[in-house]
Amino acid sequence: MNERLRTVLATPLDEELCRLVEQLEPRVELIRDHSLLPPMRYPADHAGDPSFRRTPTQQSLFEKLLDSADALYGIPGEEAEALHRTVIANPRLRWVQTMAAGGGAMVRAAGLPAHCLNQVVFTTSAGVHGAPLAEFAVFGLLLGAKGLPRLQHDQRRHEWADRWFMGQLRSQSILILGLGGIGAQVARRLSAFGCHVIGTSRRPIEPPQGVDEVVHPDDLPSIIARVHGLVVALPGTDATQGMIGAELLARVRPGLTIVNVGRGTVIDEAALTAALRDGRVGYAALDVTAVEPLPNNSPLWDLPNVLISPHTATADTREDRAIAELFAANATRLLDGLPMRNQVDTVEFY
């Protein structure tokens, strides 16, 4: 097909990668004015410098560009309000590529009417972040298994303690909540350690590579006591809100390690705090929290058996290029009438 896809750059992107998109799919006309976008402070800084401000004239020009697009590369300002305005104002808009793997949460927050959700395809960058998040998951499980809080305590006190038995991942059962792009990569890495890997899926599926068992999320209360580690790789939806709560944490194997690389809302943080204090959870490595940034008065900051990572485990200098390549491949699919990858479910918003 000779159809052109007028795409407006709505998020900062290096000019080299803009040209890469056009090279990979020549039917994409990537409209950009870098002076209207905030400068990036580091690679994959999709929101850009927060001190950046457009003049009224620049804002008018930027919105005029957005409202002329068939597709958007990114969400303007990474803001739900801006996404709402843009979709409502532009009846020709067909597609929005979000930068986040969990871009469905932003689409939900935009509060778009049904006719807009039917008009526009929203896609995410799912899969781009799988490798770095899988590494963080293994990192967190190792910290828990090796007793990092105890080691740090003794080191601070200059105590050479008697030898003690550290946990060994190869003898552990690990439960992965969510077997999407992230969960599947976690499973493959844990399989290499010799772990017994259990994954959850709402639909009957064959166990992916590295997964020994697949269970339904409704079965969590009956299996949680079997596992030594829990990796959360779920999106934030109404169905996953508070899934890891007081009732489930009451059933865990004492000393459980929890790693969250999904969304912070999946875990009830008050219940998690109580479980960390009484030893039901021995260690938690959290790259995400329910409210971000984590409020200064959260007890999670000060618990010795918690690692707080400020939603940075996905950061990778290659991220921008990977998303650009994904966008170009999806543009080809759209223009050729093929199903697009990573479409947001506009009912569950994941």
Description:
The protein is an alpha/beta fold and 350 residues long. It has twelve helices and twelve strands. It has two domains: 5-127 and 316-335, Rossmann fold; 130-308, NAD(P)-binding Rossmann-like Domain (Rossmann fold). It has helices at 15-24, 56-66, 80-89, 104-109, 114-119, 130-145, 148-156, 181-193, 220-223, 246-249, 269-278, 319-335; strands at residues 5-9, 28-31, 71-73, 95-97, 121-123, 173-177, 196-200, 213-215, 229-232, 256-260, 281-286, 306-308. The protein is elongated. The model has no long low-confidence stretch (mean pLDDT 95).
What's a quick, concise take on this entry?
By secondary structure, the protein is α/β, with parallel strands linked by helices.
Features:
elongated; 350 residues
The major pleated sheet works out as:
7 strands, parallel
| Overall radius of gyration | 22 Å
Give the SSE string.
Answer: EHEHEHEHHEHHEHEEHEHEHEEH
CATH superfamily of the largest domain: NAD(P)-binding Rossmann-like Domain
What fraction of residues sit in β-strands?
A: 5-15%
Distance between the termini: 30 Å
- Tally of domains: 2
CATH class of the largest domain: Alpha Beta
Shape: elongated
Class by SSE composition: alpha/beta
Record field, number of beta strands: 12
List the SSEs and their pairings.
Layout: E1 5-9, H1 15-24, E2 28-31, H2 56-66, E3 71-73, H3 80-89, E4 95-97, H4 104-109, H5 114-119, E5 121-123, H6 130-145, H7 148-156, E6 173-177, H8 181-193, E7 196-200, E8 213-215, H9 220-223, E9 229-232, H10 246-249, E10 256-260, H11 269-278, E11 281-286, E12 306-308, H12 319-335
Parallel strand pairs: 1-2, 1-3, 3-4, 4-5, 6-7, 6-9, 7-8, 9-10, 10-11, 11-12
Helix pairs in contact: 1-12, 6-8
